[in-house]
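If you are new to this repository, start here. Below is one unmodified record pulled from the training split, so you can see the exact layout before writing a loader.
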Amino acid sequence: MRSLWLKLTLTFMAVALAAVGLVAILANRAVTSQFGMYVAHGRQMQATRWVPTFAEYYARTGSWEGVETLVNDWAESTKMKAGQRGPQKRHGMDGGPMSSAPNDRLLLADSQGVVVADSRGELVGEQLPAYDLADGVPITVDGQQVGTLVVTSAKTGNVGSAEASFLVAVNRALLWAGLLAVVLAILLGLMLARQMTAPLRALTVAAEEMAAGDLAQRVTVRTHDELGELGRAFNTMAEALQRNEALRRQMTADIAHDLRPPLSLILGHTEALRDGILPPSQETFDVLHDEAKRLDRLVADLRTLSLADAGELSVAVRPAAPQLLLERAIVTHTPRAGKKGITLTLDVAPDLPEVLVDPDRMGQVLDNLVENGIRYTPENGRITLSASRSDYGVRLQVQDTGPGLSPEETEHIFDRFYRGDKSRQRQEDGGSGLGLAIARSLVLAQNGRIRAESWPGEGATFIVELPTSTIPGAENQPG
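And here is the target side for that same chain:
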């Protein structure tokens, strides 16, 4: 049995059968018990009506001898009243239910419990059982019990044919009601099982299609329960896989694109040197060396990202002063910024705590951010490096006066090989296109956070938040 739909249906059926069966048994017992008490009460009322007559007889005769005549009168009176009312109507002596009926039986026992009269003439002289005596009404004369009058069924037991027919009708009604309840439970179970398994079947089909390579698969979510959450989680996973696959393909194309120019240049120069077309001058060797360094940087950047993705990037975290980190970045990039007339300024809040970082890795992060700012800041622009407190610890900012970024560019600025302007070719000094992606990986590896804020025409601000050495347990955070 492999179908969840079938398992759920059979489970609902079993639960319905068990519940209906238990209710039917309990209801049958309750009806039988209460109806028996009802019948016994009615017969006690009937016996109570005749007790004065039998007491008067005993007081007049001093014994029960000849009482059969009185019992026969009771039987004739019962038949006559039943014939007048018809077989379907039974009322008490006061118009209440369950008065005498043709199948009722009158028993008279003496003070010892021995039957002295029987409307059927079958039990005279026999000892009446205690439970029958308990259902009877005592007959007292001058304060002494002289007998017991019992009205019971003419058949064995206290339930006659009419009462038995009533119980059969009740049990038949319970049976039909139980069968109807089972059918309704099965139908509802089928609907619920189908409703529960339909999203699972859709997920299975979509997962199989994704395994075959179709990452555009999505499932329709119609509920807000656990199955709906599963569907939304599947769609989120599918979107992430599709996005990562697109990034992987784009990264492969971008790597090939960035590798082609230096390789073509090196290949072209070496072929020209081999054929004697190009003289082996210092200038030619410098060009080959610069292109080889460019390839080396690209390979080093890719290796850094691959180590970060695998969680194997080595990070030696220790306390470091935020001002020293920013001053190093300014000293390193002042010559290059000066060539474009860009001013590098420092703005550090006083009394900042030390941050827990790897100074070398953090220097690499700031280098990438400052280089990005120099690349896109126009001549005579300004780049401000600042540090201040934040709820997370210490906030480092690199703010430029460049053209700024659109919201879409801000969202994807840390993607690998991302270009806001697809038609713009990367300049020779434009780097590998991996600088910001590497910066994000390095910051995350040091338990920090990084984001970009920008508006078109107002420059871009890169914000790095780092934990401080005063945060409890921060020294033990994984790199």
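Two things worth knowing about this chain: The chain has a mean pLDDT of 79. The chain has three domains: 4-164, 226-309, 318-476.
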